[in-house]
Amino acid sequence: MNNYIKVVQAEKTNSKFKKTNSFSCHSNGYIQFEGNKRISFINEEAMELLKLDACPLQGQHIFSIFHFELTSIIETHIDSVIKESRFEQFDFMFSELPVQWLRFMIFPSLAGEYTLMILDITEEYIKKERISETQEINSIINETAMKLNKTEQPKELLDSLFHRLSSSLDLDFYFNYLWNKKDEKLHLMNYYGISETAADRMRVLAKGEAVCGFVASKLTPEVVEHVDKLDDRRVDLLKSFGIKAYACEPLISYGKLVGTLSFGSKKRASFTQEELDLIHTISQQVTLVLNKIRIVEEMTHNTNSLQKANIHLMQNEQKLRDIFEGAQVGIIILDNEGNIEDTNPAACSILGITEEECRSLKVEKFVSDSNQTPLEEHWSNLLSLGKTHSDEYMINRPDNTERIISFTASKDIYQGHHLIIFHDITLQKSIEQSLINEKNVAEKSNRTKTNFMAMISHELRTPLNSIIGFAQILYDDKKDPLTAKQEYRLGKILYSSKHLLQLINNILELVRIDSKPDMADDNNKTVNVKDAIHDCMQLVKNNALDKKIMILVEENLEDVTILVDPIRFQQVVVNLLANAIKYNKVEGSVSLYWRVTGHYLALFVKDTGIGIPKELQEKIFEPFYRIFHADFNIEGTGIGLTLVKQNVLEMKGTVGVCSREHEGSTFWVKIPI
Ligand code: ADP
Asked: Does 579 sit in the ligand 1 pocket, CB within 6 Å?
């Protein structure tokens, strides 16, 4: 209350008294004095009001009963009443503690005497002061509201608000915390009255910590008075700043905590209810403004994000445009009626027309009648299925030249707009066609060659068989024995004839595989690998014996059956075994083994022979390819491995070799079981 009065005093420093026109009497003091200013009468109430001793005062000079300050004021009034015979009145704060306001009224009375009436108007004055105080508060609130509405900087707003309040409420500090949803803590945003270092000590508060944290957890205002006399850890911080009175308000918006706003004073130990109400009202206004600022900030942020997104969008659009313009394929955008809305340069060049000419033309303008699928069918497919395509489509250009394109079309790439992507395959088509023609010619000539070879081989085999037959009869004739020389020469004829027959047989076999590739599976049977291998070994047994070569079959091999043409399989194994013997050293060895992996049988034929140079290992499978060996004279036709490869391929398998020169070779065959 004291401070509250001080506020009023401060406003009225130069007017502790005021002229008033109306009054109401509570306890009237009454003093009668003469023209010489000597008291002729004084009543008890006057003595009480002026706090005078009961000693006789009649005859005393009237100024002697007032203290100095009052005397100097009253003197002027008394003088003017005496001189001008008029009514004078003024109010005076007679005492500060407790407050007492007196009203003095001076006027001429009977027979040259004068009257001084004294009224105690303290109550009335306090009422008035209250009214003016309320007006002051209202003006602060209004001013704040106006300022708040204009402010967009919370710091600026709170600082000016604080300065306005501090002069009226004797405030020295304010702290504004904002609630951070992420870490669930109060963060000091704005403050006044403390140093940066001091602020560092209280930048972040948890709920319940210090007075602000306590207010944030309770969501109700808190007033701490006579802080210096309190023994509570929550006010330690306030004490350290010398704060004596402290009021903290929660800032609540739509039922949610936004932050806290608190004010502190070093000069006073408590607040009046009116002051607290003022702080409360202001805090509510601050909440509104902080909210407004937050919304504006969010909107600005959103606008900025939108702007950024817009720029990004524009960049992307430019990128797409660049791709559209630079694409090597033709791109056309059509509307629902089939009108061309947009084209890229590649599309124009394929259609043989400029971009401007293209626009608004219907796509059907370019379509040739020679297409198997009419445009209408593609169009209805596009509209019903969402896409359509054609591997080849003939278009008619305005200069009457035709081009072949392949296209895909997608419906509604954006509202009512369809996309056609196409490329010119005219050149590719003509190359394809000439390749087909060349292939047909090649196939025809190959067939002729195959037929010729089959015919020749067949024609050669009949006389050759009779040559071998008769030569053999001559050779074996015991009745008419040949001379040693004749026998030697006939032996040569027989050997060469048999070699020639083998060559012809191989050629016929090659021709047979070549001419009927699709019949590969027709003769498939279930073959037991062990049995088949045994049969093959019988066929090459004599060759091995001649060179004293051991044929070894690995022990404990898996007993497996395969579905193959048994003759093909035998031919493959026999050819590999025959080579392993033929290209082996005398007294060498041939090993045979197999493995089953997944759905395949892998068969290995390993020899200890002359080996094959790395660079020739691919070539030996080519028809008639033979490696020339200066040290050995090994005869052959160069078709054995070609037959192996052809047969294995027919069995949908693969064949290969691993070999080291002078050490030996391992041929392998992998065929599906
Ligand atoms: P040919 O044996 O009738 O000459 P092939 O087609 O069977 O024809 O073989 C082609 C060539 O591959 C042979 O000339 C030979 O040089 C080489 N060759 C084949 N098998 C072996 C092997 N086991 N060891 C070393 N060389 C081989």
From this structure: yes
360 burial (CB, 10 Å; 0-12 / 13-18 / 19+) is: exposed
The string of pLDDT tens digits covering residues 433-491 is 999 999 999 888 888 887 888 788 788 888 899 999 999 999 998 888 899 999 999 99
Whats the size of the chain, residue-wise? 673
Cβ–ligand 1 contact at 621 (below 6 Å): no
Nearest CA to ligand 1 atom 25: 611
CB-CB neighbours of 186 under 10 Å: 27
Establish whether the linkage from the previous residue to 154 is cis, with ω within 30° of 0: no
3-class SS at 555? coil
> CA-to-CA distance for 7 and 5, rounded, in angstroms?
5
Nearest CA to ligand 1 atom 7: 640
With a 6 Å cutoff on the Cβ, whether 506 touches ligand 1 is: no
609 Cβ inside 6 Å of ligand 1: yes
Contacts of 190 (CB under 8 A, 6+ apart): 154, 155, 158, 159, 174, 175, 176
Structure tokens given for 590: 């041939």
580 CB near ligand 1 (under 6 Å): yes
Tokens representing 379?
Answer: 């169009």
- Beta bridge partners, 118, equal 29, 104
pTM above 0.90, yes or no: no
**Segment (H or E) for 102:** strand 100-108
* Closest C-alpha among 204, 178, 203 to residue 257: 178
